[in-house]
Every structure is written in structure tokens, then in C-alpha cells.
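Subject line: Sequence and fold of a protein, written as C-alpha cells
Enclosed: The protein record, placed directly beneath this head.
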Amino acid sequence: MPSPGHETARITALDVLDVRFPTSEHLDGSDAMNPEPDYSAAYVVLRTDAADELEGHALAFTTGRGNDVQAGAIEALAPFVVGRSVEEVCGDLGGFSRRLVHDPQLRWLGPEKGAMHMATGAVVNAAWDLAAKRAGKPVWRFLGEMTPQELVAQVDFRWLSDALTPEEALDILERAEPGRQERISRLLERGYPAYTTTPGWLGYSDEKLARLAREAVADGFTQIKLKVGASVEDDVRRMRVAREAVGDDVRIAVDANQRWDVAPAIEWMRRLAPYHPYWIEEPTSPDDILGHAAVRRSVAPIKVATGEHIANRVVFKQLLQAGAVDIVQIDAARVGGINENIAILLLAAKFGVPVCPHAGGVGLCEMVQHLSMFDYVAVSGSLDDRVIEYVDHLHEHFADPVRIAEGHYLAPTAPGLGAQMLPESLKEYTYPDGPVWSARA
């Protein structure tokens, strides 16, 4: 809590905007479960009456009509946020997160899953954006320069202690503390490895797939990803096209977006195995821990990856306990914000499983890069088999867009989380009254 007279500024508003992009027109983002997505953001702005005039910006990523529900869920949190002391929120982000997550009536809608939990994550992330801006640091460095004790205080260990205790988390962070500055310097010099899904959308022609795959390799990417799951014969052909385009030394991951039951997942991957897929992502329901474990046993040495639709830290815990995944895929806008993602990164470190985040969408690349860079600096201390997904669209709408060079995310240097959108983009794409949408009415 602030000392008397030290800080009187308060949060004066929690604004929510429904921002949608008509990506379905060119099949950008298309996959076996989402054939015509309109990438969308339930966009949050925390406004204050502080003299510095800084704001907190974040978003929950949805597709199209989902934004109606998501924006309403965020608005329901306003009474818990507006009027709070800025110093109280930014000085105790762990406490702020727990207060939002554990409201006894709103949490009933999950608990800790679905639109309400994603709403909480968006507001929590906006608070982190505000706190990092006040500190004058990008979020990855704001986190990476916290003490191990401060980081442990961000985590809600309820339901985790059978797999990860606060003492174990502190030990992980203390063991990673030596070399932090060297790793920060390395990120600033070289960046963080990336892979790209840009060639692999399911609606693209074979010619477009091959061209974009070759361009990705020429741009320095050593891994690409293809969407699969609609037709096994089409997927075999597309894998052959991609492998011929990139050669044997480039990894090709595949992503089924939850399309299959367990047995079809295993059989489908046997058909693709001659083309050496690196991992199969979301082979079945994100809630099916034992199903993922069965797929993993059957398709090895192909790796199993999942996480972008996993609702909370508890499901991640069980996937790791069951030996059901080779790759953990966190998402910046799915769980309850940065605090819960810190817990998931610590769980992955405890079990020795690399984290390769989901990105793309609207602002997901901008936000999740901070979590991977923090993981490298202060948690895992490793880049081995770790990459961040990159998709080349919609970055032009952000004030501090991601920067890619030679297949790497360049470390952000601007203060905050990177989720702040340009005023003109908000005006153009706000639904349903922005010019882009009113012209389609």
C-alpha cells in the first residue's frame, strides 16, 4: 500500500472496445476448425488521473461474434477496478490478480475458465502494461529484473502444490538468477528464435504454400507450420509440397486445431510421418489429458504440443504430470493474465519441458514475446528447442509492433506489453460502427 500522501492517483475508467478485422475474406487464419475467422480483439484501456497520463492497454483475442460475449465479460469487471489506487494495483499485481480471479460470484461462471477468465486476464495484462510503463521498461525486462521473491509473490499456488510448491518455484528462480544480465544482453543483441505459420493456412493453394515456405526459409526461419485436419489426402499432398520446398533441414510442425479424436489423430500422423513432422499441435480436445498422453505414446518420435486453448494452470499441471506433452504452448490472452502464465512457465521448468508459445491472431505476437523472453532471462535460462510462433499480419495496427530479423523476434525496448493499438486502427475497425464494418452492412 502507498504511504500517506505518496500517491493519490486512481484508475478512473476501464474502457472496452470491440475491434474486428475481416480476415476471413482472404482466408488468413483459416484452419480445420475455423474455416472463416474474423480475427478480433476485446480491447481494454485502463485510464487514470495520474499526472503522467499513462494508460494500461491489453486485449482478449477472439474471432468475430465471440467478441460480443468477451467484451461484456470485461465490462463486468469494471466495478472491481475503477476507483482503485494506481499505486495499490501496480505495486501489488499478484494481489490485484487474485482479487479479480476469486470474486465469488463472477468466478462461478468458470471457475477460472472461459470468457470470464479471459476477461480477467485482459484486465490483469492491462495492469501489467501500466506498471511497466510507469517503470519505463518493456514487460519482459520489468519481469526479468524482479527478485525471485517478488516473482513467487505473483503466483497463485492454490491447486498447484502437489506439483509445484512456492519453495520449489523460488529454487528454480534462484538457480536461474546467475547469468540474467548476460541473457538480457544476448536478447538485445540477437533476439529470440521464431517459427512462422504464415505459409500454412488451410485455405491457401499449393502454389502459395510453396512460395511462402521458400520465402520463410530465405528470411531465416528454421521451422514452419502447416494447418492440417480437413482431409488426410490433402494433408499428405501439402506436406509433400512443403517438404520439397524447404528441404530436409527445416522443421515442419503441423497443427490440427483439436479436429480429431484420439484414434484418428494417431492414424493421421502415421500417414504424415514419412515427411518428418516435428510436432503435432492440438491433436484432440485441449481438456483431454489422457488422450494427449495416448497420442504422444503412439506417434513418437513426433512431438505433441498443446496449450493455446488450455483454460488454466491446473490443466497444464495435469498434462505435465501425465507426461502428455513434449511442448507447452502458452497463450498471452487465454489464461488469467501474466500472473498465471508465470505459474505455467514455472511448472514447465519444473518438469523440464520447453515452452513454445502460440501467437498470431491480434496482438498475440506483440504480447507473448515478453513471456518467452522473461522465461529465458529468469526461469528456464535456455533457448534449446524454444521458438515463438510468428504470423505476418495485423502488426501494422500496433504502436510498438513486433520486429523480426533473420528468423528471430528482436527484443522490445519500448515500455509496456506492446498491446497498444493505433488510434486510427481503433477508429477504423471498431464493430459495428467503424468505417470498415459500416461499409459492409
Observations:
- Residues 174-427 form a domain with the TIM Barrel fold (CATH 3.20.20.120).
